[in-house]
Structure formats: C-alpha cells, structure tokens
Amino acid sequence: MTRRIFVIGATGAQGLPVCRGLTRDGAYSLRVLTRDANSERARQLAELGDVEFIEGSFANEDNLRKGYEGCWGAFVNIDGFNTGEKTETYWTIRAYELAIESGIKFFVFGNLDYGYKKSGYDPKFRCGHYDGKGRMAEWMLSQRKGHSMGTAIFTTGPYIEMAVSAGTPMTPRTVEGVVTWAVPLADGAIPHVALDDCEHYVRWLFDHPDRSDGLDLEVAIDHITYHDLAKAFQKVTGKPAQFIDIPLATYFEHLPLKGTVPAGYNADPNDPATMTFLQNFSGFWNMWRNSGGNKGVIQRDYKLLDEIHPNRIKTAEEFFRREEEKRKSQGLPSIFETIEGGKLGMILKLTEDGRKGKFLSFKRVSLSDPARPPFVALSYVWGDLTNTLPLDVSGQITQATRNLHKILGRLSESHFDELLWIDALCIDQQNPHECTSQVALMGEIYSHAEYVLAFLSPASEPFSLGLDYIEATARDTTIHSDPPISPHLTVRDLNASDKPLQDSLIGFFAAPCAHGFLDIPSEINGGLTIYTATLRMKHLVDMLIPRKLYTEDFLAAISLFRVRHCSDPRDRAFGYFGLRSPGLDIKSEIPVDYTVSVADLYKNLAVALIEKSQTLDVLSHILHESSIEKRTDGLPSWVPDWDATIDDRYHLTYTERTNMTRHCCASGDTKPEWRVQSSGHVMTRGLQIAVIEATAPGYPSIIPGSTLGGKKIINGWRQLAGLPPLSDGPPRENGDAESHRERIFEDALSGGFTSMKWAKGCFEYSKAYQAWLEWFISAEGSLAKSCKQVIQDFDELIRQTSERRRFIVTSDGQIGFGPEAAKKGDVIVIIPGGKVLYILRMVEVEDPDCEVRKYRLLGDAFINGAMAGEKVNPPTSEFTEIVIV
C-alpha cells in the first residue's frame, strides 16, 4: 500500500516539482491543501495520479486535521508572503504540533535560511520571509526529543528560474538589445536553486527517513555571481547579456510596488511586527551581497548535495542549456526571444496570483461621527454561497464566496489601499440582531461612501472585446445605413475581421433569433441566455430612472428582481429598505428584523402593502404555476412567496401582466376589507360571479416564435367558448349569434384589460387579432414584414393574458383566463379593493354549523366584461363574508 503524504504549498512554484517527485513511480499518493481545487495549478497536480484535494487554508485547524488524517507523511511549505512573518510563526507551530497530534510519521518542512542569525544578528540582514521560516526550522529540530515523529528540513533559496521570469526581484530586461540584470548584488552571489532538482531532494528525504531525520538539507546549484550568470546566458544563447550593479535605493525606485507596502501581503500594515517591502528586501539583497564564494553569510555543502543528487544542475550554464532544450522540444520561443518580446512567464505563484492574498482587518466607524475616515462601499454579486474559500479577517478565518475572493484579488493587483465596506464581511451574517441593525443603515452607508465600487462577474470577460465594438459602432449611426455594415469594418481601431474580436462577437450572438431575441443558454453567462441576461440589465436600468414605476412602488420593485438569488430570503424585502426613494420606504410599517421568520415577514409585508396602497394588488403576485418551486413553508394562500424560483422569460410576462392589472378596476371604487386573524386566515367579503365549468391549457410554453401546437391551442379555447374549430384561416362567421360570440372571444383573449395599445372592440384591435391569429395557426411561423410589429405586439399581449394560465369557461358561459391550477368547481369572485377577479377553491370546514365559507386563493383571473367594475354595478350587488386561509 502506498504511503500518503499531506502537502501544504503544493500549487506553489516549489510544490509542483516536489509533488511530481513524490508521485513518480507511484511510491506515494498525495492529499493536497489548496484554496481553489479548480485552479490551473491544481489541475496540473490532478494529472499526476492519486491526488486528493482539500479546499481550505493552512490557517485553519480543522483543515489541517482533515489533511493529516490517515497520512504517513507531510510536506509543509507555508506561504510566508501570504501571512507575513508573525502569522507564519504561529501557524507553523500549529501545523507542526497538529502533525504530531495526528500521528504523522515523517514531517518535511519547506524552509529558507535564517539569515539574521547566520549573520550574527546583524539587523541589516533582517529579511522577514527568510527569518520567519529559518527560526521555525531550528525550533522544530529542537523539539524532536519530545515525540516520535521524524523531522527533516528542506532549505532552498531564490530559484534560478526567477532570473528569467516576470515579476521577481531579479527579472531581466533588454537594454539596446542586451539582456540586462540590474540588481544591487555587487560582487556577491546567490545560491540559486533549480526547481527540477527539488523533485529529487524531497523524494530522497522521504525515502531515507533513517538518515534524513534531524537533517537540515540546504540545497543550491552554486553560489552564482551575476557576472557569471550573464556570461553563461551569452554562451548558451549567443545573445549579449550583462549585469549592472545598482544601489539599493535605485533598485527600489524602479519597482512597481511601493516600498512601504507590507512584504507579507496579508500582514497588517499597522502591526509593528510587519516588515515593509523595502525593509524585507533590503535584508534579502544584503544577504546575497555578503555571500560570495560560499564564504559569507549563506553557505552550502555542495559535496553532500553531489552525494544525494549526483545528476543535479551544478552551474548556471547547465541550467540555461537545459532550459533552452526544454523550450525547443515544446515549440516555445527561446529564452532571449521571450525576454526581448516582454513575454516572460511567471514562476512564483505569488506573482501569478498578483499578490492576491487578502489581509483584511476591521475598523469600527460611526456614520454620525464627523471625523469618520473616508471609505468605499463595494457592490457585487455574492455568488454561490455553498462554494466558498477561507478568508482571514483580523486573524479570524471566515468563509467567503469565490466571487468575493476574485474581487479582492483584483483590488490587490491595483494596490487598492482605502477603507472598504463589504456587506458580507462587515455584517455578521450569523447574527440576526446585527443584520437587523446594519441592514437598516444600508442607505446611509452607501450614501456616505466616497464612491461605490461595482464589480461584474469575471465570467463576462470574453464578451468585453465584442461589447466594446458594439458600443463603438453604436456611437455612429451613419455606418448602419445601406449598404450593410462591412465584415471588415474598422471602428475606433476595432477591426471586425480580427479573429479575437470575431470570437467575442460570435460568443455573444451565437444563438438563433426568435422574436428578435437570443435564446441559447450560455455557460459564460451563468446559464442565462443573452435575452435573459439583457432583461436583467434592463431591470437595473429601470431602477435608475427617477419617477418610473419601479422607483415609486415597492411592490413593483420587489417583483422586478424576483429572479435574483438572495443569500437570506428576508433580504428580498429588507434589501430595498435602504434605497432613497420615498415610494419604496415602508420601514415604518415593517422594521428590519432578522429574527422574524421568513413566512411571518412575507405575511406582514403583504398586509402592509395592502394597507399602504389600499388595493389588493399584492394578490396578483401569488404564483402557483407548476414550473415555480416554492421555498417558504407556512405561508397562507394569500401571501406571495417572494423566494420562489421563477425563470427569466416567464418573469418578464408576469411583471408585464401585473403592471397591466394596475389599470383595471373590477371591484369599482371599493377599498380592502382585510382582517388578518392570529391563525393567518383573513376575514373579508366576496362577490361570487361565476363557477368554473371547464378549462383548457393556456399559451404554449415553448420557444417564442414557434407556432407548434398553435392551432390545437386556439381550437381548444374555441371549443370551450362554443365556437367551431379553425381550419387554415380566420374564422367564418355564420349568423349574428355566432358573430357576437366571436367578438366576445376576440375581446377575451386580451384579458379584458382596460389599458392597452388598441381600444377593445375597435377596428385596429380586430385587425391586429386577425393578423396574429393567421400567424399563430400557420405551419410556417414566419412573420410577414408588413405586419411583423403588429403581430409581435399582439402576441405579447396574449402571452401576458394566457401564458402558464388556463382558459376558463363558467357555468353561465363567461370566458377568460385564470391561474394554472384552476379547475371545474372553483369559484370566481370579486373582493373589495381588488382590481381584478380571483379564483378561490373551497376547503373543508371542520364546523358544519359555520356559515362563513373558507377558501384557498389560487390566484387572479381575467374575465371578459368584468374588469372595469361592470359586475359591481348597480350597488345592489351582494358581497358575503368569506375566509381565505
């Protein structure tokens, strides 16, 4: 059975070759701790064979115990540039102690030289990311008598690959065609390490625990001066190279990072223990300046290294030669071509990540304090709450979504150094009382911020180039005139013939058009079609326009974003309370309170909306369709489940339909009589106008534009309406009675809405209906150019009335549309304050002597001839007491 090794630091520059060496020939299997098991480096590790991944952080004891469990050995190389020296010290101790606790048999620690001690504690040699490891290595070896775990130290140094990589302390550049290393090394030397050699050394340590236990194996190629490095490069490549010694001050002036930033990118800049970049790397270069000839501060036993690894790389020339051969075999440019072209790769994971490690610390501020420091507020999509990675905040590990990690990485890359308000972190999401107080302040927080940083998902990046082109072409309308736009048209330096731009545009528009929209789901858009993604952007735009419905009416606003995900279902209400729009402010009726249950909040919200608006508009937002998954238990039938899932396409139809119902007045000028009982039941009055006799499926929920089943659907409706089926054309009228019935049917299809593009019963309405009907029952499904817009407009009207609804006919011959769950025997009623009609289903009454009937609300209904108050006039109409459960 193979021995299993737990590896911390596997995705780092050193970790990859170490893992390669361990898995070679199947001698060891691996368990790897990583922040992201889907990263490119993690995928490279997965190809090595028996490799198990644990997502987490070394700064988490549960992650460490889980990693060690059942393993024989451990290789631990903690990222000191992540933590900083102080935090690295603590977690190195805990990693070592937990390995002993977990029964690890052999422990190898990835180390660097303790330069401060080796120099005789001369402060000019203090280098935090070296001393932090070296100090701990000595401590580990001093602890060996107290336990049975074998311990070996693997001490490396600057990788020689860093001398030909981007973003390192010794990255070269070309000066007038000459490859140049301009670093403050003087006549010193660096004991460079070849990463490929690490593969052999660490494998040797695990293979020979009897000899390596207690050993500090300090490795290197050689102590290499940079004059020798340049000569070796020139000899191998045939290209000119040079070393220029520069003062330390000059060196730091030309670095992209400020010398005052923390050397450990997660280290607290306000902690006196934190070394700055300048302090740390001054010590770094002083070590090498004083190590020439293997006689100074840092020394190596090359005789021992030759014994352990006879085939090791021994000179810079040998390294460059192997590197050139490797590049040639892989079809890559030579080292010189890569340097000259400014296309050096990145060898340090620190650099690849763009110093993405995230140190965060809390600072308490008061919004009412005039002296409060300026801050920036972050606006972003949280993302999948089940897919998180650990994040260190003030020394405490919390879980944050991948979206937030990516955002913090981007901010780190841009050297963002301002106070940042992040709702997911600054509000304790597990504390309902804190959520209650903080969410109520959201409007104040955002309005007092210096500015708001809004982040889009990184998944949208492939579309950026194409969208730039679309935006550029939209600025100049003249290029869209006949003849059509050329496929090679260049607009503002964006050439449509360039393949990257073409790929981006194709990715954006790669879908067949139906009703003029793009309807193929795209993985890059999180599974959304371009059509639905555009709709979601439209919602945001709608909320930005003053005095529009969605900025003045809370019910419209909450319905607008019903398709969005919420980490807490209560945020579907509380999330709007901070918006500075008088029409959306119902905080006085519904206080922010995260201790209240979701069901109680939604019930209280429904009552508040009824009382505030003096209408029953909220009842039209109750959706019982089969495609909608309800997620909130314990709701009365008259309360919308705002957390129910709803797809984008139907959401558009639903929001347009509910907006249309605002113009109806089925109950005349009556006001709501809505008395909520402690049980959640409602006492009100109702006027029963009919009983459903039969129903038929509504508008087919198929791809828009397709008329598959159109004739079958319309004939089903006509049959219930007492009309003959259609053949291949518009209906032929036979007699006045049938003609009258056709008019009623024609009017009923629009839901009897009182506000629409065409006046009901007018010639234009009939003409639009006939054009739509001819298209709807046609086998071709194509739209005639002459009436394309009319048909599309009328079709949208029919959809709003009938999609995912039922065509209904009552026992007395009335027709219209109701909720999908409606069936024979359900009653149609008018309720005071309701602008539309409602479908109720009687429930069994426990008390047979109770005269008040109890009903379950199924949803709203549109009945022809009842939407403008016709049924409540004259005032002799009799309303009776009813209970809605």
UniProtKB/TrEMBL annotation:
Highest rank taxon of the organism: Eukaryota
Coiled-coil ranges per UniProt: none
InterPro entries: HET (IPR010730), HetReg/Transcr_Mod (IPR052895), NAD(P)-bd_dom_sf (IPR036291), NmrA-like (IPR008030)
Domain NmrA-like: 1-261
Domain spans labelled Heterokaryon incompatibility: 375-478
Pfam families: HET, Het-6_barrel, NmrA
Name of the molecule in the record: NmrA-like domain-containing protein
